[in-house]
Structures are given as structure tokens and as C-alpha cells.
Specification:
single chain; Alpha-Beta Plaits; 2 domains; six-stranded parallel beta sheet; five-stranded antiparallel beta sheet; 9 helices; elongated
């Protein structure tokens, strides 16, 4: 079912989010204070994305006049204006927008955004940095997701030294405190592996556990 979203801040991140939402069949209202940016993007965006120059999207009356309370969700991506992100997030929540994603510059901004009501807080630079670092250390890492302050998940290709071994042979939890939560073979959907599952080349695993344990986990080291 198509939904409506407002994206405040049409920089690279906001533009990418708007394009992706449009490709999924949703309607997007993109707001930005830079009129030249709006003009530049106007001929490049899908029909589902409406662009609008708004001098100050942190003012409640401006957002109310745009009818944002009728939208299904909002994304605030004013990367260089942390105070504006916080204020816009607060105004959106006070107007009753049910789902607000906000971009944080650092951990302090993230905590403040959570306090003012952001439903989801993202730190793109930190998250990309962590993923790149993990790929440097463990080249088979496909994705990394934090679950709160202490837990995380990593998606990874099967290490060569695990090929041909059964899950029960790895003793992964005893050795590292980590658990294989899901397994996917080529051409098949994901499953929860049993102890007798023998891993093959090309398999993909989702492993979860404490962040500290994942930081020490180096399955590709020979």
C-alpha cells in the first residue's frame, strides 16, 4: 500500500532516501532551504517525488501548513545543522507525525534526538565506517546491524575453513559467545540451521551476540 513521506533536507542522503521510497511506490515530499538545489533536482527525481523550497522547516506553522501531520512518516537529514535536526524532529512529533527518522552527527545528538521523540536515529558516517572497518578485517562481511548498546548482528559469507563442517562441529557459542541465527544457501531462502547442518561454499550466515565478542571475531583468519 502506497504511503506518504516527507524528507527534510535534500542533500545526498535525503535524495537517496527519496528516490528509494519512490522506487517502492510511495509518495515523497522533499523539502530544502537551498532553492538552487531544489531547481537542480527538479528534473532528476521520479514523478512520485514533489520538491519544495522551504526557508525554515523547523517552524511548526510552516510544517502545519504543509499538512505533514497527514503523512505516514518523516525523515530529517539536515546533516550540517544538528540543532535544526533536533528542532524539526520535535516539531514533527508535536504535530503528530507517527514515524520520524532523524540523522545524528554524533552520539550526543543521537541521545538528544531520542529524548525529543525521534522513533529511529541514524548515524550514517559512523555506521558506514564500522561496516568498512569490518570488511577490512573480515572481507566476507556483508552487513552489520547494532541491536541496542550491547548486541549486534553480522551478515557474512561462509569462511573457507567452515566449508564442509557441520554447525555442531564449530562450537561457536562455547568459543566466542556468538550464535548462528540464520543460514542461506544459493538459490534458497533463509532457514534456522540445526546442529547437523553442513555448510557449503557460497552460504551466507547471520551471526548475533555481544558487540565485544563480534569485535574479537575473526573467522577469516587462517
Amino acid at each position: 500500500m502506497a504511503q506518504q513521506y516527507v524528507v527534510i533536507g535534500m542533500g545526498r542522503l535525503g535524495t537517496s532516501i527519496a528516490r528509494t521510497l519512490a522506487s517502492m511506490g510511495h509518495s515523497v515530499l522533499g523539502l530544502d532551504a537551498d532553492e538552487s538545489r531544489i531547481e537542480r533536482l527538479s528534473g532528476q527525481m521520479p514523478d512520485e517525488v514533489q520538491l519544495l523550497h522551504v526557508a525554515d522547516a523547523t517552524k511548526k506553522n510552516v510544517l502545519r501548513d504543509l499538512g505533514v501531520e497527514q503523512f505516514d512518516g518523516a525523515v530529517v537529514t539536515l546533516g550540517r545543522q544538528p540543532d535544526a535536526v533536533i528542532l524539526a524532529t520535535l516539531m514533527l512529533k508535536e504535530l503528530g507525525v507517527p514515524l520520524v527518522f532523524a540523522r545524528a552527527r554524533d552520539a550526543l545528538d543521537a541521545r538528544i534526538l531520542e529524548k525529543v521523540g525521534a522513533d529511529y536515529v541514524v548515524q550514517p558516517e559512523r555506521e558506514v565506517g564500522e561496516l568498512v572497518a569490518r570488511r577490512i578485517v573480515s572481507p566476507g562481511t556483508l552487513d552489520y546491524l547494532e541491536l541496542g548498546e550491547d548486541e549486534a548482528l553480522v551478515e557474512m559469507t561462509i569462511p573457507e575453513k567452515w566449508i564442509g563442517k557441520a554447525l555442531s562441529d564449530l562450537h561457536l557459542y562455547r568459543k566466542s559467545g556468538l550464535t548462528i541465527l540464520a543460514h542461506k544457501s544459493k538459490g534458497q531462502g533463509g532457514t534456522i540451521p540445526k546442529g547437523d547442518k553442513v555448510f557449503r561454499e557460497g552460504d551466507v550466515l547471520v551471526i548475533g551476540g555481544p558487540k565485544e565478542a563480534l569485535n574479537k571475531f575473526e573467522p577469516y583468519r587462517v
